[in-house]
Amino acid sequence: MELKPLGKSSIKITPIIMGTWQAGKSMWADIDDVETSKAMRAAFDSGITTFDTAAFYGDGHSERILGESLADVRQQVIYATKVFPGYLKYDQVIEACDHSLKNLGANYIDLYQIHWPSGSFGTEIVPIEETMRAMNDLKQRGKIRAIGVSNFSRAKLEEAARYARIARLQPPYSLFWRHVEKETMSYCIENNITILAYSPLAQGLLTGKFGPDHKFADGDHRSSNMLFKPKNYRRVQQALTKLRPIAEKNGVSLGQLALAWVIAHRGTCAIAGARNAEQAVQNAKAAEVSLSTEDFAEMDLIGRAVTDHLDDNPVMWRS
């Protein structure tokens, strides 16, 4: 799998990245540790060498599973993890990083990220200058190699970039969720900040596996995703019907088609989760898909039939 540069850093990452939110189990249903570990190994064996996790995912459980599953190939993989917004004071960032290092069984983190801006979810507001001072010190000490932010608006991203070199932004981005395109994507391209798109499959919607009457199991956070609300969900189903012929023409699955569309954008990689080995293998194959200009443009229009009806709130999950 061809590697891409991570911002202005020396780090090289794969265009398809394995996401491990589901590995933490919390907010998901029917997740099995053994299957998760097999999925991580299958991803690696299929050419995916970049893995995204967070301290928040299962209170470190995702980090621990990742570290255990890839311990013997640590020097061949890239670990990206995140600090939660409730821990953004200087000493808290240092402590959180050390805790993540312990969970991962590693002596350095390739990409360390702020998970959500300060103040999110009712957390205390901490000046970004203080948080970035901690990030810069961690980098100087060799505990992290690059700095990133997640779920930041353009204004917040610009502010963070005044105090540290930002290698990447991690926003939700897919055919069905495109807020980052409005103003932040252009800033990232201009400043060589890599976009690591999370939920590039719209939390499974773009695989086509959810029918018109789908109901989620208790505890599955996707039930509050705005795309699953009735009016939006009907538009999603109509869009999927139009996407299927394009997937069939290219000899790929709907999911692979959707991932290929995301990574076709300049400076953009896709973070795709997997519950089992087969899903990880199929995700990796999306890196081999080359979309024609015509298919890319048609998919763009199909996606807008969904996104043009969404409001300006960039957060996907609302009760």
Question: Which short descriptors sum up this protein?
Answer:
38% helix; two-stranded antiparallel sheet; single chain; TIM Barrel
Which regions have little confidence, pLDDT < 50, spanning 5+ residues?
none
Tell me the span between the first and last alpha carbons. Answer: 39 Å
**Computed CA radius of gyration, to the nearest angstrom:** 19 Å
Order the strands across the largest sheet as they lie in space.
3-4-5-6-7-8-9-10
Instruction: Please provide the ordered H/E string of secondary-structure elements.
Output: EEEHEHEHEHEHEHEHHEHH
**Beta content:** 5-15%
> Any idea of the CATH class?
Alpha Beta
* Average residue-wise pLDDT: 95
| Largest β-sheet summary | 8 strands, parallel, barrel
Fourth-tier CATH superfamily name: NADP-dependent oxidoreductase domain
Helicity, in percent? 25-40%
What is the overall silhouette?
A: globular
Structural class, by secondary structure, is alpha/beta
Number of domains: 1
In CATH, the architecture is: Alpha-Beta Barrel
CATH topology type: TIM Barrel
Number of helices: 10
> Total number of β-strand segments?
10
